[in-house]
Amino acid sequence: MTIVTRTGGGMRDTLIECVRLAHEGPPVDLLIQGGRIGQIQPAGVIDAGGAVREDGAGALALPGMVDAHCHVDKTLWNRSWVPHSAGPVLEDRIANGERGRAELGLPSRDGVHALLGQMAATGTTLARTHTDVDPEIGLRGLELVASVAEELADMIDVEQVAFPQGGLLTRPGTAELLESALQQGLVGCLGGIDPAALERDSVRHLDLIFGLAETYGAKLDIHLHERGTLGAHTMELIIERVLRHGLEGRVAISHGVAIVEVDGAQSERILQGFAEARISLLTATVYNTPVLPVAEMRGRGVNIGAGNDGVRDLWGPYGNGDMLDRTFHLAYRNGFRTDEQIAAAFDVAVSGGAIALGREPARIEPGAPADLFLIDAASIGEAVASRPPRRLVLKRGKVVARLGNPVHAR
Amino acid sequence: MTIVTRTGGGMRDTLIECVRLAHEGPPVDLLIQGGRIGQIQPAGVIDAGGAVREDGAGALALPGMVDAHCHVDKTLWNRSWVPHSAGPVLEDRIANGERGRAELGLPSRDGVHALLGQMAATGTTLARTHTDVDPEIGLRGLELVASVAEELADMIDVEQVAFPQGGLLTRPGTAELLESALQQGLVGCLGGIDPAALERDSVRHLDLIFGLAETYGAKLDIHLHERGTLGAHTMELIIERVLRHGLEGRVAISHGVAIVEVDGAQSERILQGFAEARISLLTATVYNTPVLPVAEMRGRGVNIGAGNDGVRDLWGPYGNGDMLDRTFHLAYRNGFRTDEQIAAAFDVAVSGGAIALGREPARIEPGAPADLFLIDAASIGEAVASRPPRRLVLKRGKVVARLGNPVHAR
Question: FRET partner for B55 with CA separation of 20 to 30 A, picked from A173, A227, B118, B246?
Answer without folding.
Answer: B118
